[in-house]
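ENTRY TYPE: paired fold submission
RECORD: A
CONTENT: sequence, then structure tokens
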Amino acid sequence: MLVKNESNSQHWYDQNGKPAYTIRGKNGKERNTTVRDAREHGYLPSVTTIIGLLDKPALTRWKMEQMLLASMTLPRLENESETDYIARVVEDSRSTGKDAMNRGTEMHDQLELFFSGVYMIEYPQFVLRTEKVITEFFGQQEWKSEESFAHNGYAGKCDLHADNIVIDFKTKTDSLDKATVYAEHMMQLAAYREGFGIPHARCAIVFVNDTETKVCEVAEDDLQKSYKKFTLLKEFFYIDKGL
């Protein structure tokens, strides 16, 4: 199922793969880059922006569950209108997601610094554990972190890649027992390896929380099929956005 992605989280790059997430408007103030800007400047959509057209059932279900839990724990105030109550429940349900997002961003930042070779007196334990798990799985590699690319009408940044390996980190706040590689994850990895010019690279999602790290490698057949799906979705994106 396709859904419209009108989020400000859309990311754009120039033809050389340089991020163009924001642009200076006519009023001189910096703002998020829009589709109209992309048409004008020839910017390329990111992998995640293209994949953002897809509905994500698991995420949708999680959001619905958070709203239901919020409604069960938030009593309706005296004389509170239905509209105000619903708005309060929705806002409360989002707080859990915001906390998880902020923690995920923090963890991603720490992993990026480590794999970029930035010296720190002491890294968090989850970073050192993740490096150990990845090395045990893939062997010693010369990793490149958060490098960008432009390729065949799209662009993006990858969390981690080596000469023949592509990795994307997914952070979680709960147990990794049920951590699942979804179709959009496979498409993301497949698009990255093509974008970096390593079309036969091994690809994996590495799930990380505060106490565990789990490497989930994606089968080659799934990657090839995922890239075909991504290519079709990219074509739809270009038609839908008038690019």
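RECORD: B
CONTENT: sequence, then structure tokens
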Amino acid sequence: MSEPNGTGPIRAVIFDVGGPLDLETAFEAAIDADIRAGLQHEGFPFSDAEWDEANRIAVETFAPSLYRSVIWRLTAGDRGASLHIYEWMETQAAKRDLFELRPGIAGVLDALKVRGLKLGLAANQPAKVIGLLAELGIGHYFQNEGISGIYGLRKPDVRLFLRACEDLAVEPDQCIMVGDRIDNDVVPARVLGMRTVRIRTGRHRAQRPRSWDETPDAEVEDAPGILKAIEGLLNEK
């Protein structure tokens, strides 16, 4: 168990986008296909076992960018080829809108709003995500635009979390952070005194805390689990 975090009354819940809100299944599959095609085009053959190993190492070593880590490993550290593959992958990704709304998450957001909690965002996403959230009918729940593409800050930089708190007019210890990564979500949020809920999903579900101080207050598997965990933290006070 982690040590208790947060001392103030909970007034806000801050969400990552990829994982809690967006399943990212189609997006990740498209990125994988781009990287594989780029490696093959640049003349770097690899087996499925080598691909899986590169992904495993990237997750276990808390690589800031899983994609860069995988590409670097499978090109055996060829800088020029790695940059070319990564830049092409990013160009392809920018053309796609593959947002997959997590089943049940709209109901979770509504229930939290009814309880009087402020809802915000702290996510490494392009600016266009704000429009996608609105199109999917959940954008109105969030009281800030805490997106790296708008603020120019990327997690795990704690300034993105602090900006979200400023936007919501709350202190960090009055917040719950909901995310899918230990390194990008749980660790910086805990440093600031936030309570944390981690949803185990996607390729980062295999991440494990490196010590007890990186353990989230709760781990869940789906949208109902997010709501139950938040309600549990609310009831602790």
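NOTES ON RECORD B: The chain has ten helices and five strands. Residues 25-94 form one domain.
STATUS: closed
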